[in-house]
Automatic annotation (TrEMBL), chain A:
Protein name: 1,2-phenylacetyl-CoA epoxidase, subunit A
GO biological process, one term: phenylacetate catabolic process
SUPFAM superfamilies in alphabetical order: Ferritin-like (SSF47240)
Region entry Disordered, spans: 1-20
Gene Ontology CC annotations of this record: cytosol
GO molecular-function terms, A-Z: phenylacetyl-CoA 1,2-epoxidase activity
Keyword Oxidoreductase (UniProt): yes
Automatic annotation (TrEMBL), chain B:
GO biological process, one term: phenylacetate catabolic process
Source lineage: Bacteria, Pseudomonadati, Pseudomonadota, Alphaproteobacteria, Rhodobacterales
Name this protein carries in UniProt: 1,2-phenylacetyl-CoA epoxidase, subunit C
Entries under SUPFAM superfamilies matching the protein: Ferritin-like
Top-rank taxon: Bacteria
One GO CC term, this protein: cytosol
NCBIfam families attached to this UniProt entry: PA_CoA_Oxy3 (TIGR02158)
Pfam family of the protein (one): PaaA_PaaC
Amino acid sequence: MYAQMVKSTGKGVMSRADMSPEDAAFQDRIDAGEKIEPKDWMPEGYRKTLIRQIGQHAHSEIVGQLPEGNWITRAPTLERKAILLAKVQDEAGHGLYLYGAAETLGISRDEMTRMLLDGRMKYSSIFNYPTLTWADMGAVGWLVDGAAIMNQVPLQRTSFGPYSRAMIRICKEESFHQRQGFDIMMKMAKGTPQQKAMAQDALNRFWFPSLMMFGPSDKDSVHSAQSMAWRIKMNTNDELRQKFVDQTVPQADYLGLRVPDENLKWNADKGGYDFSEPDWEEFFEVLKGNGPCNVDRLAARNAAWDNGAWVRDGLMAHAEKKRARKTAAE
Amino acid sequence: MSQDQALAEFLLRMGDNTLILGHRTSEWCGHGPALEEDIALANTALDLIGQTQMWLGLAAEVQGQGKTADDLAFLRDAWEFRNLLLVEMPNGDFGQTLMRQFLFDAWHVLQLRALTSSSDARVAAIAAKAVKEATYHLDRSAETVIGLGDGTEESHARMQAALYYLYPYVGEMFLSDAVDAALVEAGIAPDPASLRAEFDATLARVLGEATLTLPAARRARGGGRDGKMHTEHLGHLLTTMQWMQRAYPGATW
C-alpha cells in the first residue's frame, strides 16, 4: 500500500442518527456494494479523504521511480536493464491512472504535484530508503511491491469507481513486478558468495521498512474506521501486515535467506507468525522528512519540475500558436 | 576483410548505436519534464535496448567466438565500440536530448528501411521489426523539436543551441569505408552516402516548421563508427554501464 496514515473526517464513523437523508442514501449505496461515480452526490469528507489517499498513492508511484531508476544505468545485463526500464515505466503509468482518478474528484494534477513538491502531500515512507546494491532491485520488487499488492488487491473492490478501475489495471502489472523481484533475489541467493551476501544485506535493510508500509496499528483509529465504512480502506493495517509476513517468511526460507527478526516464530494457535514491530519512532521521523533520502527525493522531483518548466511552457506556447493559426485560416 | 568480418563490424555499428543511445535515454528515468515525457523517454530507451539485444546477438553469432550480446555490451573497452559519436553525446537539457534523438531517428528510419531488403535475411528481419519502432520515435522527436523550436523565445533559443552543438556529428552517419563497400557489394546494407538527400529533406522540413536555422556546415566529426577516436564522454558512460560485469566477473544475474 502506498498510502499511509490517510486522514479522514477525524470524527469516527458517522452514526445513522447523525446522517442527513443524502448521507444515509449514500451509505446505503456503499453497503449494497454499488460503485460511486464522479458525478454522483458524495459527502465532502468522502471526496477529501479520497483525494488525500489517491494523491498519496499517485505521488508514491512517481517518487518510487527514483530508487529503482538509480540502478537502470548500472543494470548488469541487457535483459535486466530492459525489465527494470519497463517496470519503472509502468510505475509512471500507474501515477498517470491515479492522478486521472483523483482529477475526477475536482483537483488538478498540477495542483497535486505542487502539494507534493512543497511537502503538503506525502508519499510512502518506503521510498525514503536508499537502493545500495543490485540486490535492492530484487528486494524492492519482492518486498515493496509484495506489500503494495497486499492492499491493492482488496482495493480493486473499493467503492469509488475510477479508483477501483485504476487499481484493477495496476494490480495486473504489480504482480509481474513482484515476480521479477523474486526472480532477481533467486539468482542472487543461489549465486556467488558475494551475491548471496548482497541479497541478505538487502533483506536486512528492507524488511522493517516494508512492514512500516502498512502504517502503525489502526485498530483504534477514527480515520480508518470512517474510511472502512466508506469502503475506501478494506482491511486494517495489522491484518495486512500479518498476511504479508505469513506470505513472505516461507519465501525467504526458500531463498535460504534469514529474516532479520529474532522474535519471528510460527504460532500454530493463530495460524500465523509472531514477529517484532518495526521501530515506529523511525517511521514517524521518516514521515516528518527525516528519513535517509527524503531531502534527496524531493530535491530530485523539484529539479525535474523546475528544469522542465521551459519545456512545458514551450509546448503549450506552440499548441496555442497552432490553434491561433488554425482559427485565422478558418 | 572477409564478408563475415565486415558483417560483424556492421552489426556492432548498428547495435552500439542503439545500446549507447538507449543508455543515454534511460538516464532520464524519473527526471523528465512531465510524466508523459518520462514515459515516452523510457519507452524509447526500452525499444532501443530491445534492438540492441537483436543486433549484438547476431553480431556475436557472426563472430562465432562463443560470445553473447551481454559480453559485447559489457566487456568491450571504449575503442572497440562502433557507435556514431552523436549518440554518446551527453543528454544536456531536455532539448538537447530530443534534438539528438531527432537527428538520429531521421537517419535511423532511412537506414532501417533500406535494411528491410537486405540480402541477409537475418538483418532484414531485425530491420523489419525495428523500423516500426524507429518510425514512431521519429514522429515523436520531430513533433517535439517542432513544438519546442516554435514555442517560446527560451525554448527556441535552447533548441537552436542544441542543433548548433550537435550538427557537427551528423556528417559521420554518411561516411563510408571498406566495411561499407563490402556490405554494399554483398547487397547487405546501403551505401551510407545514398541516404543523405532524403535525410536532408527531412531536416529541412522539420527544422523549417520548428523555425530553426541549420548551422553553416562545419567539418564533420568522425571516429565513432570506426572506433578511431571516440569522445571523452563514452568512457564515463561505460564506467557506469559496465561496472557490475567488471566488478563481479562470471556471476549470473
